[in-house]
Amino acid sequence: MTCIFCGIADGSIKSQLIYEDEHVVAFKDLNPQAPTHLLIIPRKHIARLCEADEKDAALLGHILLVAKKLAQQFDLKDFRLVTNNGKGAGQSVDHLHFHMMAGRRFLWPAG
Ligand code: 5GP
Ligand code: ZN
User: Is 62 among the domain residues?
Assistant: First the structure.
């Protein structure tokens, strides 16, 4: 199985990473839906949130703290962090990712 986000995480697919550490990478979305639209992903291939388990607890927590770090780095006071779990929710890439979006008003409830 080829996974585009695994390729971005391991460097085999070229992408300008804006953050990386041992467990997580972040990069700009190819098709941004807000002035700032970042994707935060684990290096580990997890297809979607519901495929994560207890062993991934620290990793999932770490992703949230990376989001906080990016908010500080990009000086974002207001942002939306969202993951789409499953096709019906809008998931198009089967590798867990969190959209971090900022720079415009967001509707609630989300559309
Ligand atoms: P989903 O619809 O699965 O929640 O989000 C997938 C996101 O990945 C979309 O916003 C899409 O624009 C982005 N995307 C898909 N392929 C690539 C790619 O090759 N590079 C980058 N940077 N973003 C991608
Ligand atoms: Zn993957």
Answer: yes
Question: pTM for the full model?
Answer: 0.98
| 109, part of any domain | no
- Specify the DSSP element, H or E, that contains 80: strand 80-82
* DSSP reduced 3-state for 70: helix
pLDDT mean across residues, the chain: 97
In whole angstroms, give the CA distance from residue 39 to residue 51: 18
Q: Residue 97's Cα: distance from chain center in Å?
A: 4
Ligand 1 pocket, residue 92 CB under 6 Å: yes
40 is in which domain, residue-wise? 4-102
Q: Is residue 24 part of a domain?
A: yes
Mutate which of 29, 38, 91, 97 for ligand 1 pocket (most atoms within 8 A of beta carbon): 29
